[in-house]
Amino acid sequence: MCFLCEQFGDQKYGDGLWYLNPTNYARNMYKLRAPGETAKGAEAGLETGVRSGPSIQDLLNAIENNDKEGFEKMRQTMQETGQGSMVVPLADADKVLELCSPIGLESCICRKADRARDERNEHEYTCMGMGVGMLKWERWPERYKGGVKFVNIEEAKEWNHEMDARGFVHILMLFGAPYIGGFCQCDYPDCGALRNGVDFGLQVLKSHYLAKVDYAQCNGCGICAQRCQWGALKFETTSGKANIDMFKCFGCGLCHTACPRQAISLVRRETVPAVAEVWL
Amino acid sequence: MSMPTKIPEFIWGRKYPKITIDLTKCTVPFLCKKCLQICPEAVLYVNRVITLEKKLEEMDPRIDGNYVMGAARRDKCTGCNLCIEVCPVNAIKIEIAPMERLRVQGKGEQWSK
């Protein structure tokens, strides 16, 4: 069990997984800002241009200046106060979409910054916003260029499956746990969250699952090897089959959904003792 | 399993590449975006200029100075020069200190006497 499940999970729903607990999607999770109150969290940076905490730049500067203490301090702050996120496999993503409302498709802010992608219509959008926070999109015209396309649950699921087929990892974005603000569709290297996770071991929590190969079924076609964004799955030349490093596996399930012979299964993290409590 | 345990001793104090972008030359990065899309490591980023007056207003990428470029992930820059070659206005400058050759510190102890 991850620390979020301990705090926000309920055994009655979804095996105690915190993101399948319906109370976490209640209306009052979203705090309205009183008039005159200053912006907080994700909004603060956008409105005032002042950063809310240390960034990757500060970490790099600390490494350059040989400042080990400062580095550890900043890493702690980023871990505790930063906007966390959690990888979720496709099957669980479907269940999450059934719980939340409204759901809107929008442009991806990471791809906008890293690859200057200008997504202006629903056919180009690669990000999904969730929860009542979506209703204030009109206040942020620069962020939501081209508007927001609101979809129903079935459309959202279909869209999510499409993105999965294209090879994107589904990451739940938390704007202060357990409030879920979005469903990122990430790949390396142009997604900020996934990149922090792979390069720095920061902010991205691994999913509650791990991928396991059934060697009797695997015929070594290599389709899964193209889809791993974490550098965990590779084609093992010696045996001619897929090989998964469970220490690196984030449990996104992309290999699982792509396998034509169902040779890769997702198992719960608790069943593998050495990585049962490895969330970062 | 997080980062600090992975940082080997020789990384501390290393100098990462310094990437400077001449913003007087590079005025419409969001429209041009050649370097942003060619970088194999996605080192560069583009963002609109945030000012208190304009706050959340929509910005036109065609107007000079509405967007600025920077290097967010300079630790990943390899110095492959692809961005410099593709830049139409020669705005990017990369300084990379020559790497020190890695040597094992100390003489080491004998396994058995």
Topology, number of strands of chain A: 11
Helical fraction of chain B: 10-25%
Q: Please identify the structural class of chain B as seen in this structure.
A: alpha+beta
| Quaternary assembly | heterodimer
Stretches of chain A where pLDDT is under 50 for at least 5 consecutive residues are none
CATH class (first level) name of the domain at 26-95 in chain B: Alpha Beta
Mean pLDDT of chain B: 82
DSSP strand tally of chain B: 4
**Numbering strands along the chain, what is their spatial order in the largest sheet of chain B?**
1-4
**Shape, principal axes of CA atoms of chain B:** elongated
Largest sheet of chain A: 7 strands, mixed
Name the biggest interface: A-B, 39 and 38 residues
What is the succession of H and E elements of chain B?
Answer: HEHHEEHE
Largest sheet of chain B: 2 strands, antiparallel
Rg of chain B, nearest Å: 20 Å
Account of the protein in words:
The complex is a heterodimer of chains A (280) and B (113). Chain A has helices at 3-8, 42-48, 56-64, 68-81, 90-99, 109-115, 153-166, 192-200, 223-227, 254-258; strands at 85-87, 103-106, 127-130, 149-151, 169-174, 180-186, 204-205, 209-213, 233-236, 241-244, 264-268. Chain A is an alpha+beta fold and 280 residues long. Chain A folds into 3 domains: 42-81; 83-205, no CATH class; 209-275, Alpha-Beta Plaits (2-Layer Sandwich). In chain A, the strands form 3 sheets. Chain A has a 7-stranded mixed beta sheet with strand order 4-2-3-6-5-1-7. A two-stranded antiparallel sheet of chain A has the order 8-11. In chain A, strand 5 (169-174) and strand 6 form a beta hairpin. By secondary structure, chain B is α+β, with helices and mostly antiparallel strands. Chain B has a domain at 26-95: Alpha-Beta Plaits. Chain B has helices at 3-6, 29-32, 34-38, 82-86, and strands at residues 18-21, 44-48, 67-71, 92-95. The two termini of chain B are 36 Å apart. The model of chain B is unreliable at 1-5 (pLDDT under 50). The chains are: A alpha+beta (280), B alpha+beta (113). Chain A binds chain B through residues 45-49, 56-57, 60, 63-66, 68, 71-72, 75, 79, 112-116, 118, 139-143, 145, 189-190, 195, 199-202, 247, 278, 280, and chain B through 1-4, 6-7, 11-16, 29-30, 33, 36-37, 41-42, 44-48, 50-52, 55-59, 61, 72-76.
